[in-house]
Amino acid sequence: MSSSSSLETIFYIKVPENFVASDDAFKIDNTIELPVQKKMDEAPGDFNASEITTEQILAGILTVLAYDKNNPHLDYYRSILLKVKPNIKKELCEAAILKTKNEDFDLAEEIFLALVGLEPGDSAITLNMALFLDQRADSYRNNGLFEDADAYDNDANYYYELALNADPVIPEAYFNVGFFYLKQHKYIEARDAFESYIALTCDISDEELGDDGVYKKERAQGIVNKIKASNMDDETFRAAYDYISRGEEEKGLEEIRVFLQRNPKVWNAWFMLGWGLRRLERYEDAKNAFLEALKHGADENSDTYNELSLCYIQEKNFEESKKCLLKALQIDPESTKVISNLGYLSLAMGNKDEARKYFTTVLELEPNDKIAANELMKLESEM
Question: What is the pLDDT of residues 248-284, one digit of tens each?
Fold first, then answer.
């Protein structure tokens, strides 16, 4: 929901002087209008100030905190909320996490925005907001909604930057942003983030870190070692990715070929070569690049098999395409991207019943997947 449409669900009133917002008889400043959440189908003209409830005021305040960052009375509204609901931050955090787990992303986002508005300087909330936006970007990308995914990646990056600059420093921010950069093939930034995490935790004993902390430190070191051993922090590698991702495939291919001359056994480089070639619809060359990637360690990477399957589909080699997709699904059983491609492959093979099952599975995993919903609708209309 946009900020403008959300703010349209509230209106402001001046409350009576004797209005009490809680059992503690918290005094309301009746010179400042309060935001009140509309009831269903309620218009301002139908509103009776004597019938307002505390819940309507609190809901209105949360909406303002989430979407109206320039409101001049935010501090006052925060004070009301914290007086009436001292545990509101804990309650909202638990609700946001639950909604995220249930993939009710719209409501989770609204709650996180309200949390940020309630405690704008809370670094833990800032980091959780970044993690949420990161996860939502992944969901959109898995559903083929790349523009939406990019927009949420940009928002996640903004909140990660805030978390990285927090005082006192948050080691977890560096650990999590490292994976954010890895997904974007920003290996230099990922290396730096993981190295920062290691440096920030190096003086903490294993006992203080606990099993989870020890695991994270070892994992961070392993990723740093792998990036360096494969020269993925090479500027040429980074340039290749940047060119291809912004649609300058030929320039990207030039860069990645230079990199491969020096590093012929780095599977990520062969994958990038295949990715660029596939985007140029040079499917035979792309297929060979992906096969090289598999030879050099990409056999546990579902994206490689998924990309290879797309090349086989173009060759009408449906049997090999399906083998690749099933292998990708074995590696990542809940990848809606892979399951959707199995649905499209089934359609290409003329198996509409099987396609219907795959698209149904996508919606079970991701109820908001519009592409799968549209495909199912088309299939149902043909019955």
Answer: 999 999 999 999 999 999 999 999 999 999 999 999 9
Residue 202 backbone phi and psi in degrees, to 5? -65, -30
**Sequence-separated contacts (24+) of 163-170 with Cβ below 8 Å:** 163/123, 163/126, 163/127, 163/130, 166/123, 166/126, 166/127, 169/200, 170/123, 170/124, 170/127
Tens digits of residue pLDDT in 36-58: 887 755 555 555 555 667 788 88
User: Cα separation of 196 and 201, whole Å?
Assistant: 9
Q: Phi/psi at 142 (nearest 5 deg)?
A: -65, -25
**Which residue in 307, 255, 248 sits closest to 280, CA to CA?**
248
Q: How many CB atoms lie within 10 A of CB 70?
A: 5
Q: How many domains does the chain have?
A: 1
Q: What was the pLDDT predicted at 43?
A: 54
Sign of CA dihedral 47, 48, 49, 52: negative
Identify whether 157 is part of a domain.
no
The C-alpha torsion from 114 through 118 and 120 to 124, rounded to 10°, is: -80
Q: Which two tokens stand for residue 234?
A: 């090479």
Distance CA 270, CA 304 (A): 10
CA gap 74, 85 in Å, rounded = 16
What single-letter DSSP state applies at residue 13? E
Is 99 part of a structural domain of the chain? no
Q: Are 86 and 103 in contact (CB under 8 A)?
A: no
Q: Tell me which residue range forms the domain holding 10.
A: 3-84
Residue-wise over 135-168: b if at least 16 C-beta within 10 A, else e?
bbbebbbbbbbeeebeebbebbbebbebbbeeee
59 lies in some domain: yes
* 379 domain residue, yes or no: no
CA angle 175, 177, 183 (to 5 degrees): 115
Instruction: Give dist(CA 355, CA 349) in Å, integer.
Output: 9
**pLDDT mean over 202-210:** 86
Classified as helix, coil or strand, 322 is: helix
| Alpha helix positions (H), 230-301 | 235-245, 249-262, 267-279, 283-295
